[in-house]
Write a structure and sequence with these properties.
single chain, 437 residues, alpha/beta, two-stranded antiparallel sheet, 14 helices, 10 strands, 66% helix, disordered N terminus, disordered C terminus
């Protein structure tokens, strides 16, 4: 017999012997279990329930209900949840079919939703803000804030002494660099500034602000200023000598005189009589100005006109474009500013401050990382798992929520999909859910 055939025959014999032994052990175990366990009523009842459950799973494929998705994006495999009014999301089925032939295949044992049931479609937020909200739910945000505050308070004096001079010097260098660039920025944008100024002179000042000032602001100023101005005028009037002023006027009209006596007298009156009176009343004028500003701000018509004028300027595309262009030239494209910042933040003082900050805050930073992303050896955090499934694996991006109606037990012919209205996400950590993944 060839060696190859002999090896094959030997393998078949070993396999057959193993199967016979396995069958013998199984028969013996069944015999013992039947002799000693089956007579127990409790075991017979439990066995009956298991067999019945297996039979239901085998024979009940689950109810299928046709779905009209309309313009809502629904595809096969999308999960369907329901809370049965108990605020606990339960996976009750999935979408099957394709194209216009979409159905919900309810899981075995799921009650019929009722003829007035509603089906709402949801999708996860695709923004970066969603990532931050998911990684930092309220309880974790409070933890992170508490850790950061505690670390800063513990090292406040040391960090402030190291970083405050660096920050102040950086601000000073930045302002000097921007100030040096401003003349060139204004020259480069002078035509646009003049164009906008002229247009607002006609559209805004003449048509809105000036009529409002004449109708509301000027009467307000006159009304509030009259008492103080009357007192100041009377005080000045008592200090000015009409005889001196009149005699200087007559003297300047005589021949062979310089003609400057009246001008000199008026200058003396201003310096010696008027200015001292006004200087003594400066606090009252300041308080008057504040009162006028407060009254103007409280006037609905003045406030509305100013707000509308500011809104027109802020919303003007020309102003937006001009502001962005000037900011870019003065700050972003300012090479002198870049050089100043680079020199300051690469200095020995800056390196020492950064090294000190790293030493003091590193333990807190590590702990915050563990809160957000998970502890080494224990796996990633549930929040990070949600983000990774959603962003990298493209999972859990769509789901439907089936709201049972008042006629639960009936079967609707068609369920029309509506856009979801509530903030429901069964895949977020902490959401009560059963069999949701």
């Amino acid at each position: 017999m060839p060696a190859k055939t002999e090896r094959a025959t030997r393998t078949r014999l070993r396999t057959g012997r193993f199967l016979r032994i396995l069958i013998a052990v199984g028969v013996l175990s069944a015999s013992v279990w039947g002799a000693f366990v089956l007579p127990s009523p409790r075991w017979r009842d439990d066995l009956g329930e298991v067999v019945a459950a297996l039979g239901r799973v085998r024979t009940d494929p689950g109810r299928q209900i046709r779905v009209d998705a309309g313009e809502v994006a629904v595809i096969a495999g999308d999960p369907v949840f329901s809370d049965f009014g108990e605020r606990r999301l339960v996976l009750v089925g999935r979408v099957a079919g394709r194209g216009d032939d979409l159905r919900i295949r309810l899981r075995p044992g799921t009650p019929d939703p009722g003829s007035d049931a509603r089906l709402q479609a949801y999708s996860s937020d695709r923004s970066v803000a969603w990532v931050f909200r998911t990684l930092l739910p309220d309880h974790k945000r409070e933890q992170v804030q508490s850790l950061a505050r505690a670390a800063f308070e513990e090292h406040r004096a040391e960090l402030t002494a190291a970083l405050e001079p660096l920050v102040l010097q950086t601000v000073r260098d930045s302002l000097l660099a921007i100030q040096a660039e401003l003349p060139a920025v204004l020259v480069a944008h002078r035509p646009q500034l003049q164009e906008i100024g002229v247009s607002y002179q006609d559209e805004l000042v003449r048509d809105q602000l000036l009529p409002m000032a004449q109708a509301r602001l000027l009467p307000l100023i006159v009304e509030r200023s009259r008492p103080l101005l009357t007192e100041v005028g009377e005080e000045i009037w008592t200090r000015v000598s009409l005889w001196r002023v009149g005699s200087r006027y007559v003297w300047d009209r005589l021949p062979l005189t310089s003609g400057t006596s009246l001008e000199k007298e008026w200058q003396r009156v201003l310096d010696e009589e008027v200015v001292p009176v006004i200087e003594a009343r400066v606090p009252e004028f300041v308080e008057l100005t504040r009162a006028i500003v407060r009254a103007a701000a409280a006037d609905p018509e003045i406030r509305g006109t100013v707000r509308e004028a500011i809104g027109r300027v802020v919303e003007d595309p020309r102003v937006h474009s001009l502001a962005v262009s000037m900011f870019r030239q003065a700050v972003i494209d300012n090479q002198q500013l870049r050089d100043a910042l680079a020199a300051r933040w690469r200095s020995d003082e800056a390196r020492a401050a950064f090294a000190l900050t790293e030493r003091r805050l590193q333990p807190t930073a590590v702990r915050i990382g563990e809160i957000l992303f998970g502890v080494r050896g224990e796996g990633i955090s549930p929040e990070l798992a949600v983000v990774l499934r959603n962003r990298l694996l493209l999972k859990d991006r769509r789901w439907l929520v089936l709201e049972y109606g008042a006629t639960a037990g009936a079967v609707p012919e068609v369920l029309t999909v509506e856009p979801g209205r509530d903030d429901v996400d069964p895949f977020q950590p902490g959401v009560p859910m059963e069999d949701g993944r």
